[in-house]
C-alpha cells in the first residue's frame, strides 16, 4: 500500500526556532542523553540576561513501536504461552484490562488479577519473560534508525503500550535512537484518540505539518492525517525508507563515522 500523506506536501520542511521546553513525561529513556542532538543551540546575551534558542531540524519523526519498530508478541508468543489459540485467548481474556493497563489506569498486579474474565490466576512473571524473549527489532528498522540518527533527526515514540515499554528499552536500547516521549501509559490516552495527537503538538510546539507520523495501523495514521500531520502507513523497513525519501527526509550520510 502506498504511504498515506496529507494532500499538502512540502518539498522541504522549514526550520523551527523554539525556546527550551521541559520533558513531557517522567520517562528516564531520552535519546538526547549521550548522543548527538538533532537540535543545534545558540545563546544570545541581552544585558544581564542570557536567552537560549534552539534551531530544530525538521521534520520531527513520530514512531509507533509495536510492529513498526519492535515485533509484537501478542499474536504468536502470547497465545502459545497460554497454550491457547488466538481465538480462545480473545474469548477468555477480560475485554478492557489490557487497555486499562496501556493507559496507566491499573498496575501490573491489578492486571494479573483481572486479565481473565473468570478470575483464573495469571503467571505474571512468566508472561513478562515470554514477552521479553520475543521483543526483537523488525527487520531493517534498526539500520534505518541509525541512518536517521546520523542525519540529526529528532525522533520520538508515539505508542500505545503499558509500563512494560521499560522491558523493551532494557533489551533493545531504543533510547539510543529516539526518546520514549509519547506513551499511552504516561499520557492516560491511546491512539487514535484525537487528544493524543493534540497533546503531542502541545509538547513539541510545532505545526503538525512539521511532523511525520509512522504507524502500522491505518486507523492511527488516518487520525494523524485528520489532525494535520504527515503520515506513513508502515509496511516494511524498505518501504518506509522510500516513503520517507519521498517526503524529503535525508537518509544518507557523507561521513560514515558521523555520530
From TrEMBL:
Enzyme class: hydrolase
Keywords: Hydrolase
Top-level lineage group: Eukaryota
GO molecular function, one term: glucose-1-phosphatase activity
Ion transport found in the keyword field: no
EC number of this enzyme: 3.1.3.10
Tagged with keyword Transmembrane: no
InterPro entries (alphabetical): HAD-like_sf (IPR036412), HAD-SF_hydro_IA (IPR006439), HAD_sf (IPR023214)
Name of protein: Flavin mononucleotide hydrolase 1, chloroplatic
Species of the source: Salvia divinorum
